[in-house]
Design goal:
Blueprint: E1 3-9, E2 12-16, E3 28-33, H1 38-46, H2 52-59, E4 66-70, E5 73-81, E6 92-100, E7 103-108, H3 113-123, H4 130-161, H5 168-200, H6 209-275, H7 290-311
Helix pairs in contact: 1-2, 3-4, 4-5, 4-6, 5-6, 6-7
Length: about 325
């Protein structure tokens, strides 16, 4: 079973094995498990003495951001970017946290970028209680996601600047990727904001006033990112419609050109087909200048039809 633990006393953090994590003498203990296997469940049950509800919440296969108060403890599930490859429909991995006074247990199925920032804060002496640790988790996750959301907006701006009928297929692919990513992120950021706000409002002496302020700030950043993602999604839809209109206009222009060419050659085809019949009685069929006459008529008809189209501005539509 992989994982680690920190024992904090007087602001100093000591990294220990999970086996020694729950020994007496520490102001706070943070135990983190990187797995969801049966051994982790056994450790949470036999060593951490957690309830079945807590164990099930920490090791559930499918999760969404939420916060539940259970007596003097709280369960919090957050979503952040993972170092492992994720799907477009599920781009964020979860960290499940069970916190009570002096104890924090967290479980991840995939390594998170935010976890490194939390570990650095613990080792740097910035964490003194469970509220500090959870606030640091929330701040690290939102700080890691913020540039990704901004990058989606920048990519969409770039697509809008490169809007061109000759790049329709390329731009549609890029816009679709941005839209899918925005939807995937927003799916979790909205409930994550609600979870952080709920945690900040929970009663309990293990959450200090500064912790509640940090949690509220993280919730506000999550709300701002969710609003920005919604704007990106709407802009992507508008951009997709604009690209569709460009493509339709391009097809209309080509269809118009084909129609004009067909209309130019339609009377010529009739004339040449008429004089191409192998029957007696065609006017001037025996005259030596008949071919020149027919050719001249074709030229005159062509010039007349093209002149009519130019006068009606069909070539510029």
């Amino acid at each position: 079973m992989s994982g680690f633990a920190y024992r904090l006393k007087d602001g100093q953090a000591e990294r220990v094995d999970l086996a020694a994590a729950l020994a007496d003498g520490a102001d706070m203990v943070w135990a983190h498990l990187n797995t969801n296997e049966a051994r982790a469940q056994a450790w949470l049950r036999d060593r951490a003495k957690l309830t079945d509800y807590a164990i099930d919440s920490l090791t559930a296969a499918e999760t969404r951001p939420r916060c539940d108060a259970v007596g003097n403890a709280a369960f919090l599930n957050l979503r952040g970017r993972s170092k492992d490859e994720t799907t477009s429909t599920d781009p964020l991995s979860s960290v499940r946290i069970w916190a009570t006074k002096g104890r924090v247990f967290s479980v991840t199925r995939q390594p998170l970028f935010a976890l490194d920032a939390v570990v650095s804060a613990v080792e740097g002496g910035q964490i003194r209680d469970p509220g500090d640790l959870i606030a640091q988790f929330a701040a690290a996750i939102t700080s890691d996601l913020d540039p990704q959301v901004a990058a989606l907006g920048d990519e969409l701006d770039d697509c809008e600047e490169r809007l061109d009928p000759n790049r329709v297929f390329e731009l549609r692919h890029a816009v679709t990727q941005v839209r899918v990513a925005a939807i995937g992120y927003r799916r979790f950021l909205s409930p994550q904001r609600q979870a952080l706000e709920k945690l900040a409002a929970l009663p309990g002496d293990w959450l200090q006033d500064d912790d509640r302020l940090h949690l509220a700030a993280a919730a506000d950043r999550a709300a701002r990112m969710a609003e920005e993602l919604e704007a990106i999604r709407e802009r992507s839809s508008l951009m997709h419609e604009a690209l569709t209109d460009l493509r339709a206009e391009q097809i209309d222009q080509r269809s118009l050109l084909i129609s004009i060419v067909a209309m130019v050659f339609l009377p010529l085809t009739f004339l040449t087909g008429l004089y191409g019949m192998n029957v007696e009685g065609l006017p001037f069929a025996k005259e030596p200048w008949a071919f020149a006459m027919v050719a001249g008529m074709c030229v005159v008809i062509t010039i007349g039809i093209v002149g009519y189209f130019v006068k009606r501005h069909w070539f510029t539509r």
